[in-house]
Amino acid sequence: MKTLPILLTSSLLICCVTRTAWPQAEGIQIRPQKFSTEQTSRVIVNYAGALQTGVTYRATVRGDKLFGLSLVPAPHILEHQAVLLEWANLNDFASLKRHDSRRRQIVFTVVADEPRRMTDRRWNRTVDCWILLVD
Questions:
Q1: pLDDT (tens digit, 9 = 90+) per residue, 113-125?
Q2: Could you tell me the strand order of the sheet in which 13-19 lies?
């Protein structure tokens, strides 16, 4: 039995053709497969202090015993805001969990940016990040 992948780009259909016997055409079965429209290539932006949802950044970070993992330089914030960076998959990277002050390069994506109003003049902003690569 041989399985041949087929991609029909004009109709956006991916199928697998399975043949029970190679020379016999009557043994052909076609099974549709899941098609993902997720973009596989990303543009990586050098981090310069501003964070935006959906953007992938290359940045320098350092471990901090009090604040966990900190970006260098710190994110630009308005005077009436406080920013908390949440690293969703930090536990997957043992080298970053040590909280040493050594600087490292990482590639990460900002998954969510949620501002919450605390008072008339005070906002808390939580930025959820997903680490993709540690250099």
A1: 999 999 988 999 9
A2: 2-8, 13-19, 28-32
